[in-house]
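Q: Structure for this?
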Amino acid sequence: LAKTTQPISMDSYEGQEVNITCSHNNIATNDYITWYQQFPSQGPRFIIQGYKTKVTNEVASLFIPADRKSSTLSLPRVSLSDTAVYYCLVGEGNDMRFGAGTRLTVKP
Amino acid sequence: GAVVSQHPSRVICKSGTSVKIECRSLDFQATTMFWYRQFPKQSLMLMATSNEGSKATYEQGVEKDKFLINHASLTLSTLTVTSAHPEDSSFYICSVVRGGNTIYFGEGSWLTVV
């Protein structure tokens, strides 16, 4: 079971790019890397998923180096509404556990 | 659109009573659903895996007789907190896995035991 390590918290300002890195040194060959966003009193929301290299969608990019022992979620031009907790999950479908997550605070 | 729906979103019950939370998979059949518990400012903790047509698998430290899980159909799993106590007050979230590796979560249910 791949354990993940993320910064506990990060602060940013509106309009900036935010990069959140997750370490997962014992990632297994079949494991995918998935990032979720959670607002207070809501269930986590899927942001992006990748296996290797770079993945981009309409809200974020995910950078995964060749050794896959870490990954970086990149949020372009954050707004106040991006203030949330971000979780990095590593594993296969039915075997994903949550780490502590990163509490991102976006300031005006 | 939403993939998973939970009900109720908020519930208050008296200490000693039981309360049921429903989790529905909206547009596909889920043989497996997951139940999490989350205390304020903490991460999600996996409580159990709900298996359609068979017994749920509970994580270590989770009392199976207190948190009854029923997965009677491919679209519905229920979590019943029996003989609830104030310390059971928490945010309960269910999820399903779709496409092999992507988890979709319900909106969550706030339980307050008074």
